[in-house]
Design a protein that fits this description.
Length: about 1250
């Protein structure tokens, strides 16, 4: 032992002096690896030298022999320069122990015969049996390490890097240390202990280092590959307290925060930082720490109700998601948009002209962004796969659920112009964060997406059954905030108000599917709506989204095929956005030239799902959702990327992917058998849209129907699709209940009855402005304000007229095809009620409009720019008449004669117009045939429908109006103002609303309580309904279902609606009062009369309170807390039934106060007055609606004198509207007079 002690002292002394005084020659000799055997009895060999040279403190002095260090014997171990000992023991040079070193036969170190020095670069100086006790002192080890880490000894390295290198050398020596393993492990423990002490001394950010200096050193050392997994694991093993846990979480956060968007332009820097994250998250303890951080953030956000922006700011993964080229759209509110990638492009010489370099940069940017998405998925997947009974997996899934929920404010902008509004831009997560979240969700779903036929079979066999719709309401963070479900279910106002609750265990596939489904809605689709082009980042990564959307379609189709009750229950849970997001994304993919991405999906399954959804209005009720399906079908069957070769008249061609997709779609069984009837069904059902907000939803009924017309026009060219149309028509011809065909044709004719007269009225306004401009003297006489108003009116009206005329012409073509080209079976369906009467009325009304004096004198400049061809429109209607008359030579002419607007004078003028056509041979050929049909009408209407009533004494009534009529009216009508009625009676209630009300889910107690309170308020207080002869409102509600209401609104005095009884049906949907009621006008003469710009002939009511008209402000829209039935019916009476309804039409307000506007208003009022007398007076008396018999009779009996006086005023005011108009008005007034006499 004494010999060992002496040797140890000598070795330490050598470490203090010899390595400083070694000559360059001796150092070189050592580096050459001399392996000379020592003259000793020991069989041990000396280890190879470190490959590095002496440290910076070395000099060319001669080496000292151990015997020359006489003072060492009197020096204690504590007085030694232990730093130098550590330099020797742990290898100051970076080479470490040579891989060629062999295990020693003895733990004792034997010095060289020449200098008696141990070899450099090993830890053997302390590895003698005598050193074991010395090494057990932690204080000595710690002192040595601290000395080594003094700034003057670090040699431009960080303390953490030095410790990591030392630890790595110690690990290498563990394989050959023999019985001294405990001593080496002691040194390892000291290194780790010092490393943790350094990390724990951090107090967060300082003046120079984010996250702290030691954290920065650790991350830099990892980036330089100086820190390996064993050192990291050792540091973690030494971390047991809360302080250590916080330190590691801080390191994790700093590693993520180290990522900067500027790194996109420097991929090498980004790869270095991602490698740091890779190393850092290899140990399972840090993987668990990341999961715990995500869960803690989720719980904090849910419990505090903080904003989505705060959620993003606190998210540890947010820097990874921020590695995106997407611009910061929040700056758009300040008219400034910035992107991290902008400088990459603007720095190019000649930008943007040098497209090749730009494309190179685009490709260079795409790779690092995809690397970040992949890295995020791999890191989170490590956490998910931890073997901790699913706890870490649950943490990640809960965070993902919260992350997609944080995107809810992004959806509040809808799909239109609202996406750039204040709420979605300033309250929702950013596009970068949202798209990163969506990408992470999709990567988790990738293993079970239907990428190919084999995957489809696997999905069918294993996964679809797991996708239970009860997930929507049974999970940890239920989300019922985003509106109604497909088959109807009540939502809540705010997602963050939904209480968090304990999750039921779910399969990982189930969680991923439903979380990703919501991510598509809150994260991806708002960005699609916001940006017209996303190709920069998503050009090829769209494939995963496509496959996920197809998986959703397959799932929906499977649910719809279940028994009716199960299917309905399932669709009541599925949010509407599921289908809207699915179709919007696939439409975007096709529209942006990526149709080839659908090449690998099962198109047959996709088409079966889409047609099933369209054919199931009880499962998918909302026309907005149906519209999104139609948009997808239009994208697939009529892609916008068809290009013309050889000019505008040259043949069109499609990209190969588009052509292949078109052929695949048309070849499916769903397209051949079900698509045409499905499209016809939703076309007819577009009149009743619950919860519509035109400022939020991209839905317009006429645009929607025009899109369907285009699809049908193309599909009918296919023989298989045409057969499905014939079957639908045969069903309609066989009975009066052929719902699909009858509903479709009725809707087409009603659209024409709206669009064509509306276009002609707009053209009249355009013509009046052109006339005013042509009169230079009169134009200059106008004030500047008047000229400016007309200048603003003119171009807006031109655009609207062009669009409406295009849709009208498309409808005319559809009628031509149906009644002329597709055979007798389809024509026969036109001759069954109600199509027989409606077809006759459409012909009469449109011919009258075209032959009216106003249309005859219409001479707008460049009519072709609007697509207006009066002769062409007339020819369409004459063709319809000839085709139907040929099928029924007697019945159809009699239907023409029975129409109250039939005018032989207008019909004769139409014959003359066609016969005199100079450019159209077909028109001249049709004229005599049309005249033959009119001869069949003559016996029924000898006066051509122009019976003129005497406007003199015959219109007088006996007696005079009582002086106390006001009091009598209030006294007699008050008991009848509000009551119940039986809505099941024939004609008592709108049949569409009656069908909706059959749903048990609609009869909710909360809704009924609210309605009961509102009805009570209508009878007293400030919300009491008005009751005066000048204007009154009466209400009926079903005795069993208060959500079924009918309202009678009497026209206000001194308006073209004066004293008429207008019946409106109301239905409160399941989400009431979160969404407004549904309202339809029943007083339309069976779809014949349009009562104003905001009240269509099909009964649609356009009002901002209903969400069917653009609101100037939020106060004009429905508010669940303040809006009510009282507010709605009062808005109808005061905003729609006005003295000047013409100015309710958008853009016409510009003409108010001008001569041009007054003339148009007077002409418009003439039509409203005629419809009021016919349908709100005569028809109301002849056919009083159930529940209002006594109200209508008493109303007209009490006010009969005022009513006849008003009619005389109308006859005098509109005498200049033409003979035909006056004939119709006089006849209607005469009929009314006769009915009022019977009430005396």
């Amino acid at each position: 032992m004494e010999e060992d002690d002496e040797f140890l002292q000598q070795a330490i002394a050598l470490s203090l002096q010899e390595w400083r005084t070694a000559s360059a020659e001796d150092n070189q000799a050592q580096q050459e690896g001399s392996d000379r055997q020592e003259p000793s009895t020991s069989a041990s060999r000396k280890r190879p030298l470190d490959t590095e040279g002496a440290d910076e403190g070395s000099s060319d002095h001669s080496r000292a022999h151990p015997s020359e260090v006489s003072s060492l014997e009197q020096t204690t171990m504590e007085d030694l320069d232990l730093q130098e000992a550590l330099n020797l023991s742990l290898g100051q040079a970076q080479g470490g122990t040579s891989a060629a070193a062999k295990p020693q036969d003895s733990p004792r170190w034997v010095c060289s015969t020449r200098h008696k020095t141990p070899p450099r670069g090993t830890i053997a100086v302390f590895l003698s049996p005598a050193a074991e006790g010395f090494l057990q002192s932690n204080g000595v080890v710690d002192m040595a390490i601290r000395q080594r880490l003094q700034p003057q000894n670090l040699q431009r390295s960080s303390a953490i890097a030095v410790l990591a290198q030392c630890h790595a050398r110690a690990c290498a020596c563990l394989q050959s240390c023999g019985s001294l393993r405990a001593a080496v492990e002691q040194w390892q423990a000291g290194i780790v202990r010092r490393g943790m002490d350094i990390l724990l001394q951090e107090e967060g950010d300082d003046l120079y280092f984010e996250g702290g200096q030691a954290t920065r050193q650790l991350l830099d050392a990892m980036g330089a590959q100086q820190v390996q997994k064993p050192f990291l694991q050792a540091l973690l093993a030494a971390s047991s307290g809360e302080q250590q846990q916080q330190a590691w979480e801080g390191i994790l956060s700093a590693a993520f925060l180290d990522l900067q968007p500027a790194d996109l332009g420097e991929p090498w820097r980004l790869d270095t930082k991602l490698s740091v994250l890779d190393i850092l998250l290899q140990p399972q303890l840090l993987q668990k720490a990341l999961g715990a951080m995500l869960l803690r953030q989720t719980m904090t956000w849910v419990s505090t109700g903080e904003s989505s922006i705060k959620f993003e700011a606190d998210c540890v993964l947010a820097p990874l998601f921020a590695m995106s080229a997407f611009p910061n759209m929040r700056l758009a509110l300040m008219r400034k948009i910035e992107s991290p990638a902008a400088a990459i492009f603007t720095s190019l010489r000649g930008y943007p002209d040098r497209r090749g370099e730009v494309e190179t940069q685009v490709q260079a940017l795409r790779h690092p962004m995809q690397r970040c998405q992949l890295a995020c998925h791999q890191l989170c997947e490590r956490v998910v796969r931890l073997k901790d009974q699913g706890a870490s997996r649950e943490n990640v899934l809960c965070w993902l659920s919260a992350a997609v929920t944080a995107g809810n404010p992004r959806t509040k902008g809808g799909e239109g112009k609202g996406v750039l509004g204040m709420v979605p831009l300033t309250q929702g997560t950013s596009d970068q964060f949202a798209l990163g979240t969506a990408a992470l969700c999709l990567r988790f779903c990738r293993p079970f997406l239907p990428h190919d036929a084999a995957a489809v079979q696997k999905v069918d066999a294993q996964h679809l059954a797991r996708l239970d719709t009860t997930y929507y309401t049974s999970q940890w963070l239920p989300d019922r905030a985003l509106g109604a479900t497909l088959a109807g279910r009540e939502g809540v106002a705010d997602a963050q108000q939904a209480p968090a609750r304990e999750r039921a265990p779910q399969h990982f596939v189930t969680d991923c599917f439903f979380i990703t489904q919501k991510a598509m809605h809150t994260c991806l689709l708002p960005a699609v709506y916001r940006f017209s082009e996303l190709a920069t980042m998503l050009q090829r990564s769209s494939a995963d989204v496509v496959h996920f959307m197809v998986l959703e379609a397959m799932w929906l189709h499977g649910l719809a095929q279940q028994p009716a009750d199960k299917a309905l229950a399932a669709f009541r849970e599925i949010p509407e956005y599921v289908v809207r997001d699915l179709t919007s994304w696939l439409s975007w993919v096709v529209r942006t030239g990526q149709a080839d991405l659908l090449g690998g999906v099962p198109i047959g399954r996709l088409m079966a799902a889409l047609t099933t959804l369209l054919q199931s209005p009880h499962l998918v009720r909302n026309a907005v959702v149906q519209s999104s399906i139609v948009e997808l079908l239009s994208a697939m069957l009529m892609p916008l990327n068809r290009r013309s070769s050889g000019g505008m008249l040259g043949p069109t061609h499609m990209r190969p992917g588009e052509a292949a997709l078109l052929a695949a779609v048309l070849g499916t069984g769903a397209a051949q058998e079900s698509l045409v009837p499905a499209l016809m069904r939703v076309y007819a059902g577009a009149d009743h849209v619950a919860g519509l907000d035109v400022d939020r939803d991209r839905f317009d009924k006429f645009t929607f129907r025009s899109m369907i017309d285009g699809l049908l026009e193309m599909l009918w060219k296919d023989e298989g699709c045409r057969r499905s149309l014939t079957r639908a028509a045969a069903a309609a011809a066989a009975s009066n209940e052929g719902e699909v065909f009858t509903g479709y044709v009725s809707a087409v004719l009603n659209s024409l009855l709206y669009l064509l007269p509306d276009c002609l009225h707009r053209l009249d306004g355009i013509f009046r402005v052109e006339q005013a401009r042509a009169d230079e003297k009169g134009w200059q006489a106008l004030s500047k304000q008047e000229r400016d108003k007309m200048d603003a009116y003119y171009p807006n009206e031109q655009r609207t007229t062009t669009g409406f005329m295009r849709m009208a012409c498309q409808g005319l073509r559809m009628i031509d095809v149906l009644a002329g080209d597709l055979g007798d079976t389809i024509r026969g369906a036109f001759l069954k009620p109600p199509l027989l009467e409606l077809s006759a009325h459409a012909i009469v009304a449109i011919v009258n409009t075209l032959m009216s004096p106003q249309a005859a004198n219409l001479a707008v400049k460049s009519p072709d720019r609007y697509g207006y061809d009066a002769e062409g429109v007339l020819l369409h209607m004459v063709r319809l008449c000839l085709n139907l008359a040929a099928a029924q030579p007697q019945a159809f002419p009699q239907a023409l004669a029975a129409d109250p607007d039939f005018s032989r004078a207008f019909m004769d003028a139409a014959v003359q117009r066609l016969a005199g056509s100079e450019r159209n041979t077909e028109a001249r050929h049709c004229a005599p045939r049309f005249e033959d049909v009119l001869r069949q009408v003559a016996p029924s209407q000898p006066n051509g429908g122009a019976a003129v009533a005497d406007t003199g004494p015959d219109l007088q009534l006996s007696g005079t109006e009582p002086s106390d009529i006001e009091q009598q009216y209030v006294q007699l009508m008050t008991p009848q103002q509000i009551a119940d009625f039986d809505s099941s009676l024939q004609g008592a209630y709108n049949r569409h609303y009656a069908h909706m009300a059959t749903e048990a889910a609609g009869d909710t107690s909360a809704k009924m309580k609210r309605l009961a309170r509102e009805v009570r308020d209508l009878q007293r207080g400030k919300n009491q309904l008005p009751l005066q002869p000048a204007a009154s409102i009466f209400l009926r509600h079903d005795a069993d279902r208060m959500d079924k209401m009918r309202v009678c609104v009497t026209g206000p005095e001194d308006t073209p609606y004066a004293f008429g009884c207008f019946m409106f049906d109301l239905f409160m949907p399941q989400q009431y009062p979160q969404i407004p009621p549904l309202m339809v006008l029943e007083t339309t003469g069976g779809g014949r009369a349009r009562m104003g710009p905001n009240v269509y002939a099909d009964g649609k009511v356009c009002l901002s309170l209903l969400g069917t008209f653009h609101g100037d402000s939020e106060s004009a829209k429905w508010n669940s807390q303040y809006s009510s039935i009282f507010q709605l019916v009062m808005s109808v009476q005061t905003q729609l039934l006005t003295p000047d309804p013409y100015f309710n039409e958008p853009n016409t307000e510009q003409l108010r106060g001008l001569k041009v506007g007054a003339e148009s208003d007077h002409q418009y009022n003439a039509g409203v007055v005629l419809a009021t007398v016919r349908y709100a007076m005569v028809d109301a008396l002849r056919n009083p609606r159930p529940g209002f018999e006594q109200v209508v009779t008493a109303h007209f009996r009490l006010l009969r004198h005022r009513i006849m006086q008003q009619c005389r005023k109308w006859l005098e005011a509109f005498v200049g509207e033409g003979e035909a108009y006056m004939a119709g008005l006089s006849r209607a007034v005469t009929e009314l007079h006769a009915l009022l006499i019977k009430l005396e």
